[in-house]
């Protein structure tokens, strides 16, 4: 795996509020029944659920029915629903039913760009009424930002003009650029009003060298520089393969930098995307990395890599998302005042569930599935590797911050 910036010594126990995962895939049927109970195990109790099921979720009624199925699996999670942008999405339906259906936005998939995107968008011009309706209602447009057919390393960057056009025409429309993977996307999002971006745990850790063979990496870099169209990659590590694909080291380092800085425009969206093992190890492999059951345990060491001195933390900067919470917890631990975390961040509530991350190594299971009742195996991210932290969910008490 590509080398990571040198981290600090382990600061000890981290006690965090239950997190928000602002982009996840919970699937259908037996797979849904297996992965949904893993949300809280990973440290989250609120999730934004993607709509690229089969068939896709295109009405508020369908979203509500899907949510009810998820609640049957774990009623302690708050499921925020999305619709799949297509001609079937109806503005009147959004206006009348979004709120009571727990629909928070609409997801834009370019056609054919990723898993279950065959019903996606080819031409944005027909969807301006939907964008205007979202703007009026205060709902969010979630964007998978890649240009179809473009070279893998440039697909996200080449989509940026379309993103800029939407933002320019609808400046009051809330936009989330999902699972950004490039320094160019960071620059495009930063500073724009009503625009934010999600970042995944795996994009903070991987580069393209962790996905493709070295000769393939060199070939893609040359093709990207020449402006050539994409050709099918030869994936050597299929369980690291996702869309958008992990990029170059300088791109990953820029993602780490914005997380380190605690910029509230950038927050956690796992894009956890489970696929049965045989689909991940097929040729070509299904796109998606499965991180849900160990999400915060995977994320925590990455978010401590380049923590600035305590004096660099802006006065009053509260932990507004899981990334910021972990950054803040490490910073206060270095300063010897971890016990002040609750008062400073105002997020830990007596008696409510919290995530305790102990500096006790744990090994990622090689597979999930059997205990969850699946006939097929799910291979998690970093299967078989050792993580620096072990996570547990317990009711919060002040004593947790004193140990």
UniProtKB/TrEMBL annotation:
Pfam families per the UniProt record, alphabetical: Amidohydro_2 (PF04909)
Domain Amidohydrolase-related: start-end pairs: 94-201
Keywords assigned: Hydrolase, Metal-binding, Pyrimidine biosynthesis, Zinc
Pathway(s) annotated for this protein in UniProt: Pyrimidine metabolism; UMP biosynthesis via de novo pathway; (S)-dihydroorotate from bicarbonate: step 3/3
Gene Ontology annotations of biological process type: 'de novo' pyrimidine nucleobase biosynthetic process; 'de novo' UMP biosynthetic process
UniProt xrefs under InterPro entries: Amidohydro-rel, DHOdimr, Dihydroorotase_CS, Metal_Hydrolase
Superkingdom of this protein's organism: Eukaryota
Keyword Hydrolase attributed: yes
EC number assigned by the record: 3.5.2.3
One term of GO molecular function: dihydroorotase activity
GO cellular component: cytoplasm
Record PANTHER family: DIHYDROOROTASE
Protein family: Belongs to the metallo-dependent hydrolases superfamily. DHOase family. Class II DHOase subfamily.
Name of protein: dihydroorotase
Lineage: Eukaryota, Sar, Alveolata, Apicomplexa, Conoidasida
Gene that produces this protein: LOC34622076
């Amino acid at each position: 795996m590509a080398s990571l910036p040198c981290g600090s010594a382990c600061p000890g126990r981290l006690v965090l509020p239950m997190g928000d995962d602002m982009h996840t895939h919970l699937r259908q049927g037996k797979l849904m029944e297996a992965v949904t109970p893993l949300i809280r195990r990973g440290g989250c109790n609120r999730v934004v659920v993607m709509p690229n099921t089969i068939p896709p979720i295109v009405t508020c009624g369908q979203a509500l029915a899907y949510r009810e199925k998820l609640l049957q699996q774990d009623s302690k999670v708050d499921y925020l629903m999305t619709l799949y942008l297509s001609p079937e999405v109806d503005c009147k339906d959004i206006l009348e039913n979004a709120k009571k259906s727990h629909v928070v936005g609409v997801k834009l998939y370019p056609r054919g760009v990723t898993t279950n995107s065959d019903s996606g968008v080819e031409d944005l011009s027909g969807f301006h009424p939907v964008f205007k309706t979202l703007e009026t209602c205060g709902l969010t447009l979630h964007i998978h930002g890649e240009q179809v057919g473009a070279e893998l390393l440039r697909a996200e960057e080449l989509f940026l003009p379309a993103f800029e056009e939407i933002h320019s025409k609808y400046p009051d429309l809330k936009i989330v650029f999902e699972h950004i993977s490039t320094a160019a996307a960071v620059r495009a999002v930063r500073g724009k009003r009503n625009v934010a971006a999600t970042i995944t745990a795996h994009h903070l850790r991987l580069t393209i060298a962790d996905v493709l063979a070295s000769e393939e990496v060199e070939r893609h870099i040359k093709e990207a520089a020449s402006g050539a169209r994409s050709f099918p990659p030869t994936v050597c590590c299929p369980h690291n393969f996702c869309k958008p694909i992990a990029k170059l080291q300088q791109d990953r380092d820029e993602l780490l930098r914005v997380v380190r800085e605690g910029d509230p425009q950038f927050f956690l969206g796992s894009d956890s995307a489970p696929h049965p093992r045989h689909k991940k190890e097929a040729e070509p492999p299904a796109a998606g990395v499965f991180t849900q059951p160990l999400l915060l345990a995977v994320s925590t060491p990455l978010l401590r890599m380049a923590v600035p001195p305590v004096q660099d933390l802006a006065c009053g900067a509260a932990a507004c998302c899981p990334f910021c919470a972990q950054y803040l917890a490490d910073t206060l631990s270095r300063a010897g005042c971890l016990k002040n975390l609750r008062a400073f961040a105002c997020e830990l509530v007596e008696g409510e569930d919290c995530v305790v991350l102990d500096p006790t190594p744990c090994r990622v299971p090689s597979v999930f599935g059997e205990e969850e009742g699946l006939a097929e195996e799910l291979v998690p991210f970093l299967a078989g590797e050792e993580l620096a932290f072990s996570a547990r969910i317990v009711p919060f008490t002040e004593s947790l911050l004193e140990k």
